[in-house]
Amino acid sequence: MRIAIVGGQNHNQETYGKLLGKTGRVEIHFYDGIPKKHNKRNLEKLIKDVDLVIVILGACSHASMWDTKKAAKKCHKEVLFSRGIGISSIVKQIAGKPAYTA
């Protein structure tokens, strides 16, 4: 499974990859959620190549959250919104625990 995580700090990427790898074969793609030039285009490129998108609500900008939601809809991808910023919240959502979906 290929997952895009939007939001969080760059140093969390390695930690997320290690811990999510324990849930099965998981490939992580990471976007820090800070709006940049060409934000929409970059997010769409990222999202079209994954199976699932997780937005960490407390760790990304509103602009990136909305851009992610629009890009996921355009690419027909599922989006989970995590209110928790910790890795345990993300692992629970991937494992099928209650999640906020769009």
How would you describe what is shown here?
By secondary structure, the protein is of the alpha/beta class. It has a single domain (2-101), classed as 3-Layer(aba) Sandwich (Rossmann fold), CATH 3.40.50.10700. 41% of the residues lie in helices and 22% in strands. The protein has helices spanning 12-21, 39-48, 62-75, 87-94; strands at residues 2-6, 27-31, 52-56, 78-82, 100-101. It has a five-stranded mixed β-sheet, with helices on both faces. The longest helix has 14 residues, at 62-75. This is UPF0751 protein Dhaf_1351. Belongs to the UPF0751 family.
Question: Short summary of the structure?
Answer:
The chain has 102 residues and is an alpha/beta fold. Helix content is 41%, strand content 22%.
| E-strand count | 5
- The CATH superfamily bears the name AF0625-like
> Helical amount among residues, as a percent range?
40-55%
Number of domains: 1
Strand order of the largest sheet: 2-1-3-4-5
Outline = globular
Class derived from helix and strand content:
alpha/beta
Largest sheet features: 5 strands, mixed
